[in-house]
Every structure is written in structure tokens, then in C-alpha cells.
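Problem 12. The chain below contains 256 residues. Write out its predicted structure in C-alpha cell notation.
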Amino acid sequence: MNFIDTHSHIYLQEFDQDRTSVVENALNEGVKEILLPNVDSGSIDSMLRLCKAFPENCFPMMGLHPTSVKENVEDELAIVEKLLKEHTFIAIGEIGIDLYWDKTFLAEQEEAFRYQVRLAKKHNLPIVIHSRDSFDELFALMDELYTPELKGVFHCFTGNENQAQKIISDYNFKLGIGGVLTFKNSGLADQIKNIDLSHLILETDAPYLAPVPYRGKRNQPVYIPLIAQKLAEVKKISIEEIAEITTKNAKELFNL
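Solution.
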């Protein structure tokens, strides 16, 4: 079985002591590709170093995370645009709206999202959307910006079935399914049980949101099979089928 972790921040300082073994452990468990969304200008160097160390396994994205959208947003976006011309990236990400931590810069987050969607279209890249407490705001933006050539994923999907159906039917986007699926009271299993597997991809969002039985600990790509096993139980099919279909979905979306 081969898996793809479509969203992992293993270039962050939480992995400074054992980053190489974290990647090697994942490879040994069949997680053959690890996709790395950027955060802001401070994370670029460590992300690119990791991709240079594992060029067959780790693949970078370029974008400005919504929680990093502050007064200097124009400077940050200029760096994103510059690097897109200088390096090869598999997606624009992670971008979006986050209203969980702070609503101060909502207008700036919305404009940063518009700007980065335009970059995605210019460079013919998919987008990876962060949507914490912000589905309504993002749906309004997507209704404004969506055109059929735009592809992407709502990463760490924790919405309801109606929101999932809108994402699929209106935008033809994927849903990123992670450790939250294994949480006893998340309710996510019920919300996606009727969603066809062709619309789902797997992710960890490491170091965050580790699946049961590691909930509360540092997440890492080696836990992807635990998420896949839970999804297999929800869908009442084998984990081998989950691996095959979600890997195919990820390879098509990110042109791997």
C-alpha cells in the first residue's frame, strides 16, 4: 500500500531533533510522498531544505497562511510571487481565512486570498484552502473567484455534509481528511459517510491534530494509515482500497 500525506508541516521546529527519522519512518509505513504547505516568509528556508534532502518524497507549496496575514501582508505576498518565478512548487498553499484566533485582519485575509487565487490561475497550480471558522466567508470568495480551471482542496475538512456537497458540486474541489476523523465526538464520520471517495484525500496537518490513539501528541506522517483505517471503517471497504483511491486522487490533483 502506498499513501500520500497531502498536508504536513514537518519542516517546523517541532521536528528539529528528529526530522530525518520522521520522514524515514513514514516511508517505511508506505507514506511515500509528503506535501508541505508553506506558512510565511519565515518557514520557506526550512521547507526547501527538507525538499532538497528528500527530493523524491517531499514536495513544497508556496503561499501565505491566513494567520500570518498582518500589516506587512503586501511584503509577504511579494515574496510569494517572487519565489513562484524562481522555484517549482506543486500548489499555492496554505491560503484561506482563519477567524478562530483573530478577526482583526479579515479584510486583509480576504484580499490575500484573492491575490493568491490569481497567482494559482497564472501558474496553473491547485490551491490548498484553510477554512477555520470561515466557510461562509470562503464560499462568498469562491463564488466570486471560481472558474473551471481552478482546482484545489479544502484542507482539514471539519464541516457538515451540506458544506461538503457545495465544495464538490460548485467548485469540484477535494476534501482533506485528517486525524479529526478519528476523534470520538467530532461527528465527521457521519458528515462524510455519503461523500464519494473520489472527492477525498488524506492528510495529517502534522504536528497538529494527531489521530487516536495519539491525540494530543505531536502528529507526523507515519500516522496516515491510522486515518486511512478509520476511513475504511466509515466506508465499509478495505484499507487497501482507501490507499489506492486517495493516492490516485492526490496524484491527479497535485500533478505528481
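Discussion. The beta strands are 3-5, 31-36, 58-60, 92-98, 127-132, 152-154, 174-177, 200-202. Students who got a different answer should revisit the alignment rule from Section 12.3.
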